[in-house]
Amino acid sequence: MKNLILTVSLIFVLGASAQSKKPTPKTAVAAKTVATVKVSNEVAAAKNLADLNAFTPLQPEMKAMMLELFTTKHRMLTESGELSAERKATVSQIISAKLEGTLDPAVFAKVKTNTTLYNSLIN
Q1: Distance between CA 40 and CA 112 in Å, rounded?
Q2: pTM of the model
Q3: Which of 10, 37, 58, 104 could crosslink 62 through cysteines, CB 3.0-4.6 Å?
Q4: Which pLDDT belongs to residue 2?
């Protein structure tokens, strides 16, 4: 009986000491970096949306879809670190196709004629 009580108390003591270890500072720094990247992605997406909305007014539903699309674009460009030129071109093609499919044909043609705006939206 003594051995059983001693064993159970030893397990609790070892479990408590394992729980009380503090995380390393590297983890905290990495979390701050991830949060900064996420915020910068959302800010860049909001800037793209503001540019598009200033050029051609969008409905609230369309704004929500475009914000999600631009956030995804910036996340794809930043999450993998440094992308090759081929990968960036592929992301640009994907975003261009999604813009074409989401916007009305007349609105998309109008946006595509403004090459500065169009390039900033897809790159």
Answers
A1: 26
A2: 0.66
A3: 58
A4: 77
Contacts of 112 (CB under 8 A, 6+ apart): 118
Residue type, 61: E
Q: What whole-number distance in Å separates Cα of residue 11 and Cα of residue 119?
A: 62
What is the per-residue pLDDT across 2-45, written as a single tens digit (0 to 9) for each? 787 878 776 777 676 666 656 666 655 555 555 555 568 899 99
Query: How far apart, in whole angstroms, are the C-alpha atoms of residue 98 and residue 76?
Result: 14
Instruction: Name which of 67, 74, 83 is nearest 36 in CA terms.
Output: 74
CB atoms closer than 10 angstroms to residue 73: 23
Cα distance between residue 23 and residue 115, in whole Å: 49
